[in-house]
Amino acid sequence: MNAESLRYLDVHPVLPDGSKPELKDSYDALKAPILLNSALASTKVGSPRAARLGADLASRALSTLKLSDADKGILSIARD
What we know:
By secondary structure, the chain is mainly alpha-helical. The protein is built from 4 helices and no strands. It has one domain (20-79). It has helices at residues 2-11, 21-45, 48-64, 69-79. Helix 1 crosses helix 2 (21-45). It starts with a helix and ends with a helix.
């Protein structure tokens, strides 16, 4: 489910013109757990390819989203 959700958000990365700021906040709030869960799950698989994907997703979350300290803690687990 996370991969499908993330793929959908990647296909529709731009919100319509005139969108309310609350919609942008909701969009980011939805995208953050999808990226974080996908990053953590990828690292748990154990293959080098999955670990690289997990690191890429964690880096993407750090560079594109405003994350809470708790979320950043999840990322440090995913990147180790």
